[in-house]
Write a structure and sequence with these properties.
The complex is a heterodimer of chains A (about 110) and B (about 110).
Chain A lengths: L3 E3 L4 E4 L4 E7 L6 E7 L6 E6 L4 E3 L2 E6 L4 E6 L8 E9 L2 E4 L3 E6 L1
Parallel strand pairs in A: 2-11
Antiparallel strand pairs in A: 1-3, 3-8, 4-5, 4-9, 6-7, 7-8, 9-10, 9-11
Chain B lengths: L4 E3 L2 E4 L5 E6 L6 E7 L5 E8 L2 E5 L7 E4 L6 E5 L8 E8 L7 E2 L3 E5 L1
Parallel strand pairs in B: 2-11
Antiparallel strand pairs in B: 1-3, 3-8, 4-5, 4-9, 5-6, 7-8, 9-10, 9-11
Classes of the chains: A mainly beta (about 110), B mainly beta (about 110).
Chain lengths: ~110, ~110
């Protein structure tokens, strides 16, 4: 079983739609959690850290459920510029493990 | 805004040659990482480095790979004898504290012919 699992997509959604991504992790010793965004052939860029209490940054909301070992990302009012791959990242000690990423394409 | 810088942005080399990829992490960061991403695949952990030694490495990071922090600013990844399958984008990352978010450089694309 992969340590961090994501649905690879692609998710094709119209502009203005709400889209949700999920991620599961297998190691209960995991300590911190992040969503990164990666554009084609570019470096991953931090979108947001994820906390058990949930956190929101504008149109983006992230949630962590430690009991179910599950992380989510919700994007509201999708923009064309949101088209990218969204990477779920889990930290355990000195290691940060990446999921395969979920591709999002927002259509005009 | 401080950033992680990597050189070269692209290197083409012949199979069997040695390659050194260079990184300058953000100056007050203490933890350093190398990742690789083969085209179309996931970002894979290679190695983490803290307090002048390797803290963790993956099964990919075999004897052909080594890392070094030769001075107070540079962090290098050396591949001793490149193989075709080493062709990938190599990302350097750093963070000030364990468990905080990683900051990535723009990557070094390595092409092995």
């Amino acid at each position: 079983r992969k340590e961090v699992e994501q649905d690879p997509g692609p998710f094709n959604v119209p502009e203005g739609a709400t889209v949700a991504f999920n991620c599961t992790y297998s190691n209960s010793a995991s300590q911190s959690f992040f969503w990164y965004r990666q554009d084609c052939r570019k470096e991953p860029k931090l979108l947001m850290s994820v906390y058990s209490s949930g956190n929101e940054d504008g149109r983006f909301t992230a949630q962590l459920n430690r009991a179910s070992q599950y992380i989510s990302l919700l994007i509201r009012d999708s923009k064309l510029s949101d088209s990218a791959t969204y990477l779920c990242v889990v930290n355990r000690g000195y290691k940060y493990i990446f999921g395969t990423g979920t591709r999002l394409k927002v259509l005009a | 805004e401080p950033e992680v810088t990597q050189t070269p942005s692209h290197q083409v080399t012949q199979m069997g040659q040695e390659v050194i990829l260079r990184c300058v992490p953000i100056s007050n960061h203490l933890y350093f990482y190398w990742y690789r991403q083969i085209l179309g695949q996931k970002v894979e952990f290679l190695v983490s480095f803290y307090n002048n030694e390797i803290s963790e490495k993956s099964e990919i990071f075999d004897d052909q790979f080594s890392v070094e922090r030769p001075d107070g600013s540079n962090f290098t990844l050396k591949i001793r004898s490149t193989k075709l399958e080493d062709s990938a984008m190599y990302f350097c990352a750093s963070t000030p504290y364990e468990g905080r978010e990683l900051f990535f450089g723009e990557g070094s694309r390595l092409t092995v012919l």
